[in-house]
Write a structure and sequence with these properties.
Elements: E1 22-28, H1 39-56, E2 58-65, E3 69-76, H2 83-102, E4 112-116, H3 122-130, H4 132-135, E5 148-149, H5 153-160, H6 185-188
Antiparallel strand pairs: 1-3, 1-4, 2-3, 2-5
């Protein structure tokens, strides 16, 4: 007999996920399996993410498919944009197709999100996402990892730029606090918040 349990609701009220906001989202593969290590699957997920973002009115400024999870920084394009609908549609489409082909679940039941406040620099979140494979030792620079990027011109320009907010040059860590030093706002140039 299966044990009875209640799933903890980790979501804020639904109205917090509607409107023009920026969101940092993490989706984990079922049981943290290494599905994202498969290049073909990672590329397919990126293509599906772009399709769903366009359909649901989201700008994906940064994304990264890691072996056991996916990060994205998404900005709502309209007041009617609904993050929960966008993420659930992406998970449902990709999960159903994956299950049909692999006879396994792709995603964990829940996902994690953080709503960025106006004072939080979105470019720092973007670089956190893009430097994930560097921190994990998969590459020396973000540009070397094939499963990250941006679907927006602003995000793509930030990724190509010479510096990111931690003072690193696209993956080389600064000596202070292992690369976590913040540089002055005027050194960052254009930001995703502007």
């Amino acid at each position: 007999m299966a044990a009875d349990f209640d799933r903890k609701n980790i979501r804020l009220p639904a109205e917090n996920y509607r409107g023009r906001r920026l969101y940092f989202v993490t989706l984990c593969f079922e049981n943290r399996r290494q599905f994202g290590a498969d290049a073909r699957l990672a590329k397919w997920l990126i293509a599906r993410l772009e399709k769903q973002a366009n359909a649901w009115g989201y700008f994906v400024h940064a994304y990264c498919v890691m072996p056991d999870h996916l990060h994205l920084l998404a900005g709502a394009a309209a007041d009617a944009s609904n993050l929960m609908a966008f993420v659930e549609s992406f998970k449902q489409e990709t999960g159903a197709e994956f299950a049909r082909r692999a006879h396994r679940r792709l995603w964990q039941f829940k996902y994690y999100d953080r709503i960025l406040r106006g004072s939080e620099p979105a470019d720092r979140v973007a670089w956190y996402i893009w430097l994930n494979p560097v921190r994990m030792g998969y590459c020396h620079a973000a540009a070397d990892y094939p499963f990250l990027g941006s679907f927006t011109e602003l995000g793509a320009n930030l990724l190509k730029g010479p510096r990111h907010p931690d003072g690193c040059h696209r993956g080389r860590r600064s000596p202070e606090r292992g690369g976590a030093k913040l540089c002055r706002a005027e050194d960052r140039g254009a930001t995703l918040n502007s």
